[in-house]
Amino acid sequence: MSCIKPSDGFVLCWDITDVGAATYATIIIAVLTLCVFLLQYRQHRHNKLVANANYQLALFDKRLETYHEVRQVMTNFFRDGQPSLNDAVKLRNHAQTARFLFPESVISFLEAIADKAFEHHKHGIIWEPLRKRSWEGEELDEEEISARDSALNAKHEIEDWFLNLVQSAKFSNVTDPHLKLPDKL
Predict the structure, then answer these.
(1) What distance in Å separates the CA atoms of residue 120 and residue 125, rounded to the nearest whole number?
(2) What counts of helices (H) and strands (E) characterise the chain?
(3) Which of 123, 118, 103, 105 minimizes the C-alpha distance to 73?
(4) Closest CA to 102 of 59, 70, 134
(5) What are the sequence ranges of the domains in the chain?
(6) Could you tell me if 185 and 57 are in contact, meaning their C-beta atoms sit under 8 angstroms apart?
(7) In the list 59, 93, 108, 117, which could disulfide-bond 83, CB 3.0-4.6 Å?
């Protein structure tokens, strides 16, 4: 027999040897254990949902940084009329770190933009001195004239490629599906 003596003078006793009381105690303990289990399960499920939402938001933020870098390249192209070498270097760095954020199709698209900008700069290095010499009245031989004209045509093709990229909405078609947050986080 077990007894409890509260401070007000009562004595509460029970006999655990009674099978009915032991059965009720066991059932109550089982119900309480089940309730605790269900509460912990719900808390764990809620924690998983919150962690997934935080992951989705963090991934979105990182992807958005790369998107803004591409937008900056395009904005500077429209402002200057040609792709910037500094922007191409920054975009190449973003493309290398974005390998962990985007599928290969987006990475190859980013690298194509950077490659075109580098190619434009390379043709500018060939074209500019020849243009300057011919502008100042110096006679160029046929090989130099051909190189100057070829470099200028290549620069124009790359500039047209950048314009078509924006006009055809390929930029948005490639990046936008990966920049959408799920409807339900």
Answers:
(1) 9
(2) 5, 2
(3) 118
(4) 59
(5) 2-179
(6) yes
(7) 117
